[in-house]
Amino acid sequence: MPNLAISNKEDLSSKRDTVESRITIGFKERETWKDSSAIFDDHTLQIQGHPVMEDWEDNYMQQLAKVACSQGGIILEVGYGMGISASYIQKEHIDKHIIIEANRDVYERLLDFSRNSKVTTDTIFGFWEECITNIPDNSINGILFDTYPLSEKEIHKNHFSFFSDAYRLLVSGGVLTYYSDEIQDFSDEHTEKLRAAGFKQIDKSICDVEPPLNCKYWNSNTLMVPVIRK
Ligand SMILES: C[S@@+](CC[C@H](N)C(=O)[O-])C[C@H]1O[C@@H](n2cnc3c(N)ncnc32)[C@H](O)[C@@H]1O
User: Fold this and answer.
1) Domain span at residue 135?
2) Nearest 5°: CA angle at 176, between 9 and 193?
3) What are the tens digits of pLDDT across the range 41-50?
4) Pocket test for ligand 1, best of 52, 54, 107, 124 (most atoms within 8 A of CB)
5) pTM
6) pLDDT tens string 175-226
7) From the CB of 74, is ligand 1 less than 6 Å away?
8) Which of 28, 37, 87, 121 is the most buried (most CB within 10 A)?
């Protein structure tokens, strides 16, 4: 049982730092995300000056992929980024992989990935908010959601607005996981949002991570892996 007082204190300080750095970088009009350049190097992805993805998250992505694929079947992934989780998903025993991505440069890489993928991969370009209603109810066995906040009000909350669609899309017994923005445990607000969407089986594991000291969005040595079942 973690020491909740200490864990919550650390949580608040970590979130304050990352909120400030994202606010300092600033947010442009949402639609501009689609056509902004995606700057890749060997270890990171930046868009509009934001640190969107970094490869120190590799083992976290591996754990998220394992959870998302634990029921096999059709896996929906939201946010392709550097394709790290997508590559892990392809190593699991699944029937189909669907990926939604909102940035055109990243989407070009996703198209290459889908042409060479072992498991059939369907790609969808756009914000998930625009295209999610095209995916039928009760049709998905596992979901891995990992986008990025595109406005100040979404910081540390960009997954919350997806929960009701996740519940609608999953088959009974299907599983949802996502970049949690939590160190060890669900905040009260986080649990409330999951319950409000209909989820009752709310579980987790903890993943050890080693972000570099200059990481602008995470400065703790663990990240929570949500295991949410319908
Ligand atoms: C953190 S990265 C994903 C990292 C990925 N899991 C990996 O392993 O490399 C977030 C991705 O989500 C995309 N994205 C951000 N907001 C989105 C939205 N509303 N709908 C779809 N994609 C979005 C970004 O363009 C970016 O490519």
Assistant:
1) 4-229
2) 50
3) 999 999 999 9
4) 52
5) 0.94
6) 999 999 999 999 999 999 999 999 999 999 999 999 999 898 999 999 999 9
7) no
8) 121
